[in-house]
Amino acid sequence: MSYSNAEELLTAIQPATGGTEILDPATGELVGRVAQGSVSDLEAAVDAAHAAQPAWDALGHEERKRLLNSAADNIEANAEALAQLLSREQGKPLNGPNARFEVGGAAAWLRAATAYDIEPEVVVDDGETYATKHYRALGVVGAIGPWNWPMMISIWQLAPSLRMGNTVVMKPSEYTPLSVLALGHILNEVLPAGVLHIVAGGRDVGEKLSSHPLISKIMFTGSTPTGKAIIRSSADTVKRLTLELGGNDAGIVLEDADPQAIAEDLFWGAFINTGQTCAALKRLYVPEAIYDQVCEALTNVAAKMPMGVGLDENNVLGPLQNKAQFDIVADLVQDAVDSGAKVLLGGNPDLQAPGYFYPTTLIADIDPQNRLVTEEQFGPALPIIKVKDVEEAIGHANALETGLGASVWSSDRQQALAVAARIQAGTVWINSHGTIDPRIPFGGAKQSGYGLEFGLDGLKSLAQPQLIKG
Ligand code: NAD
After folding, report:
1. Sequence ranges of the chain with CATH classification 3.40.309.10
2. Which of 162, 197, 281, 457 is 20 to 30 A from 155, comparing alpha carbons?
3. What positions constitute the catalytic site (predicted)?
């Protein structure tokens, strides 16, 4: 069935009466109502997913690929309704690298999970010994997601899981359940009954999922503290884990970079989704020689980017998704201002206006140890730190416990590569930041998590390797 707008889609996923109200973070208006799942709903979903798994696995790769591609077709057929709902619930604008982009990305990543063949690999074949490696389904995968890219990240978790013959029970963030329920509804119009379950609920439901004996693996994206809690609660059942956790990505500008040429890409590297992105550029290190030029070029780009209600086609930046995140950003910026750092742009939220809007903020001349630098702001406030040379920048970049992504900005590729090799991060981008690709594996270093998503590595991580000798 095809839904022409968010209201039609909402009628398909809301309870007939009651439920928890979800409010638009830009306006405070009602978006819709969600039926909160309990721990017993979660248990019923796990049982159903467990019962459905053998038949789903038995369909084989080609049939699962066909079904996943039809599910991607159904996302595309309902793209505008999904984007409207996502924009209203999450806050992100329809345009720019936001809601329509996210729905398009969800379809693209779903198709990407069908793009590889998984064949048995011959490990030894020397005339005497013959051994092969096979990738078997794990069983039921539990998926737990955040509120910043709710549709895209749900697909990152469920698409490779389903492709490899697993069934899935997913718990969306309590801040953005409608987006995930709507996406699940669209997918389930195509998928066989029982293979994909979405249970909206709180922390208790997440805890139960990550300790449930019938769950073989948890795909988790969210904060580092929650990732540590999941490691603990999954320990008794020795679950496999892919943990995509928090980041505080450094960008390092080299002296030969052209400030005008890099300014717009620097901006989007930091401010995509209004800064609420795991692998956004969250601290920028710039050498003295070009510090003022970079600050000026970035300020000129940032000042032109319209922020406002997501459904207004002109906007490319939106509100913070929730009050708690607004308070984190406001507190960190205030701390920087109190320390004597210089506000180049923003830093002055209108506390009387509706919505959790925090203005696009650039902070210069900031102490490298200031909390706005060392803690994850996860919002539209970028600290620009002056360094004397690249050695100092690398030292700061590697000093934190996180290591999701990083970037190096230079006109000299060889020099950029040499710097990249010394940065402790799962991905280093050269002259861009956060430009993920479904063919390129993605995962964190240090306390940003472990395991890889995307590409062939991502598919294999949703399988049990089995060696056969003989
Ligand atoms: P969060 O950790 O607060 O919540 C994530 C999910 O975990 C939610 O669904 C929540 O209900 C659930 N949860 C909470 N406690 C739980 C527990 N004890 N057991 C099981 N589940 C539990 O994260 P958030 O605030 O939604 O997301 C923001 C964070 O996520 C940021 O730190 C960001 O960097 C990170 N993030 C990382 C990536 C990545 O790919 N590395 C992507 C997006 C976001």
Report:
1. 249-437
2. 281
3. 244
C-beta separation of 277 from 92 below 8 A = no
- Exposed / middle / buried, residue 468 (Cβ in 10 Å: 0-12, 13-18, 19+): exposed
The verdict on the CB of residue 203 being under 6 Å from ligand 1 is yes
Query: Distance (Å, rounded) from C-alpha 166 to C-alpha 226?
Result: 24
Q: Could you give the angle at which helices 99-112 and 79-90 cross, rounded to 10 degrees?
A: 120
Measure 171 CA to ligand 1 centroid, in angstroms.
11
C-beta of 174 in contact with ligand 1 (< 6 A): yes
> Tens digits of per-residue pLDDT, 169-221?
999 999 999 999 999 999 999 999 999 999 999 999 999 999 999 999 999 99
E strands in 138-280: 140-144, 167-171, 196-198, 215-221, 240-244, 249-253
CB atoms within 10 A of CB 4: 11
Tell whether the model's pLDDT for residue 1 goes beyond 90.
no
102, 144, 153, best to mutate for ligand 1 pocket (most atoms within 8 Å of CB) = 144
Quote the ligand 1 centre to 223 CA distance (angstroms): 4
Tens of pLDDT, residue by residue over 20-43, are: 999 999 999 999 999 999 999 999
User: Hey, which of 109, 226, 322, 332 would you mutate to test ligand 1's pocket, going by the most ligand atoms within 8 Å of its Cβ?
Assistant: 226
The correct CATH number of 6-245+448-469 out of 3.40.605.10, 3.40.50.2300, 3.40.50.2000, 2.60.120.260 is 3.40.605.10
Is the pLDDT reported for residue 448 higher than 90? yes
Rg (alpha carbons) of the chain, rounded to whole number = 23
Residue 406: strand pairing partners: 250, 428
Answer whether 0.85 is exceeded by the pTM: yes
| Planar angle of CA 196, 197, 200, nearest 5 degrees | 145
* Residue 270 exposure: Cα atoms within 13 Å on the Cβ side: 27
Q: Which two tokens stand for residue 245?
A: 């956790």
Ligand 1 neighbourhood includes 177 CB (under 6 angstroms): no
What separation in Å is there between the alpha carbon of 355 and the centre of ligand 1?
22
Q: Is the CB of 247 under 6 A from ligand 1?
A: yes
Class of the 249-437 domain?
A: alpha beta
The residue among 36, 34, 31 whose CA lies nearest residue 7 is 31
Which atom of ligand 1 sits closest to the CA of residue 233? 19
pLDDT for residue 379 is more than 90: yes
Which 3 state secondary structure label does DSSP give 361? strand
Residues of the chain with CATH 3.40.605.10: 6-245+448-469
